[in-house]
Amino acid sequence: MHSVVAIYPGSFDPVTNGHLDLIERGSNIFGRLVVAVLRNAEKDPLFSLSERIEMLQEATRTYPNVEIDSFHGLLVDYARKREARVLLRGIRAVSDYEYELQMAMMNRKLEPQLETVFMLPAIQYSYLSSRLVREIVQLGGSVNGLVPPAVEQRLRAKVV
Ligand code: PNS
Q1: Mutation test residue for ligand 1: of 75, 92, 114, 131, the one with most atoms within 8 Å of CB
Q2: pLDDT digits (tens, 9 = 90+) for 68-87
Q3: Calpha distance 98→25 (Å, rounded)
């Protein structure tokens, strides 16, 4: 396992404590964990790509085997380029399962050598999502304990 490169892909708009929980779990298992931020999402992100990368870098500084990168195009092509054997995804609740199953099966069809590995975040993050975090801050609520303090500050700066 310790020579295995795993990719943890996502939008990370912004990174939450749920993502960080999964990054910690992944970094304990895999030799190298590449957190890959999706570039060019058709959805209009709140944070630019470089802001999302910066927040991830700040929050993962203490993990020597974690790297932050970005990708565009097919995830399987990026994984091949990075010589990764694993795609890491988190499943919070049963509601995530259907979408994740579809993606994992399609990625397997595209690249049978690449294995999708699912991990469960800590229970206190099982209801947490970047979308809800954005919405709460935009509506004036507190996301204390759900995102790193630096991310909360950047969120507040966006909505003033
Ligand atoms: O943060 P998200 O929205 O859960 O991440 C979704 C992501 C980035 C993993 C997915 O949209 C993706 O892999 N996009 C890259 C394009 C691609 O490979 N599409 C086919 C997937 S089966």
Answers
A1: 75
A2: 999 999 999 999 999 999 99
A3: 23
CA 138 from centre of chain: 21
Return phi, psi of residue 117, to 5°: -115, 130
What is the distance between the terminal CA atoms of the chain, rounded to a whole angstrom? 46
CA gap 53, 85 in Å, rounded: 23
d(CA 38, CA 29): 23
Confidence (pTM): 0.96
Residue holding tokens 């970005």?
A: 70
Task: Please provide residue 3's backbone torsions phi and psi, each rounded to the nearest 5 degrees.
Answer: -100, 0
